[in-house]
Amino acid sequence: MQTNVLEYLEQTVPRVPDKVAFADENGELTFAEVSNNAKAIGSALAGDGLYGEPVVVFMEKSPAAINAFFGVLYGGCYYVPLDVEMPAFRIEMILEQLKPRAVICDSTTKPLLGQFGYEGKSYLFDEMTKTAVDDAALSAIRAKQLDIDPIYIVFTSGSTGVPKGILACHRSVIDYIENLSETLGFDEDTVFGNQTPLYFDACLKELYPTLKFGATTYLVPKQYFSFPIKLVEYLNTHKINTICWVVSALTMISATGTFKTVKPETLRTVAFGSEVFPVKQFRMWKEVLPNASFTNLYGPTEATGMSCYYHVNREFEETDAIPIGKPFRNTGIILLDENNKEAAFGEPGEICIRGTCLTMGYFGQPDKTAEVFTQNPLQTRFPELIYRTGDIAHYNADGDLVFVSRKDYQIKHMGHRIELGEIEINCGLYDGIEAVGCIYDKVKGKIVLFYTGNVEKPELAAYLKQRLPRYMQPNLIRKLDEMPHTPNGKLDRKALKAIYDNA
To answer: Thinking of the domain 299-406, which architecture would CATH place it in?
Structure first.
């Protein structure tokens, strides 16, 4: 029985030691190099008496940063990814919460540590990898490790402005990787194109399957996501055949007419998630890649990664939502209504998740953890935790889950309950629209619509009057040069609210 994610690496190295595991525009690391470096880093940490505690990896996005993650695990600790892209105040708050005794840096990030008030020990990655491997120490560490030990902390936004650190353990990550790999059909020939920053859990989809199968992951340069033609050319140059991206990264390509200039030649697996994929944009991808598999993934960070999947194997109307499908094996989904009862079939309810996939909660925030990791109200005979996602869904006639909205995005306007996503979907159907975002001003009772594209506001307003009932009409429409996105690539609604407030 596998109990440690490092077993993936240890089983792969003897088979393909010289194959490239991780690469970017500046260099690459083979599986043998990843293994040797990781063991050296683990030995360095063990030699300094670090065990069972958070170790921050504050490095630029690179194969070396990924390698540092595995080194932390060899040392019996758990890694916390930070990045120079993150706002300084956020890094300060995270370091204050963690109070780590060790930070692994590179030559670019180490000089920056002082400005965040960090006074603990800092290591340089390049120096740590020169440490002599202490096999006895690493064996002793492994003998003590359990599959319920933490593996990483990733920080998400907190409602109070304080970041929340979510801990995952070996058991939940192994469960996720096994299910995801089976669902998407990864193998040794898989070549991933990574899109997300390393300080989000989304990168798990590439990191650990690469170790498991002896696959290869390319870290796609961030700047290419602003130049869709170069982005597709990059995929072709490196023969990338598998991408697991947020929807906005895909629509950025299709909505800007990129496929008229260049088309992806090697993609065979396209997985998407985190946002609703407009059917109009999805059809463009399907037309360009008729033989590729397309899979919609859904899941929160608090449940380790993705929890549900839907292989898109039929046509949809442009106003339809592509289902999020069914839960992974060994994952349970319950839809609870407002009375904590199971929602009737076809009726909306809050998605609640149970199973091995659940993470350990929020680091140092037991009250916050208890708010959303709660006893299953349908199970009164023994303790069983569920995670309350705050997402609303219902089952369709085929028995597939269909995402409806976040609780936060449901509004009451003019006496009607409205899903802001429905307004966005209808707006996105208009020719020339590239991206859409909708917010609600509760104080003034205004629906505010933002968009990008070669469309004038009066014609868009006239179109929406034909598509939407009066109570769903936007009270204000604003055209933007660029739609704001979070570092993970999702629509940044907080930024839209700031644009509105500052107008």
So the answer is: Roll (2.30)
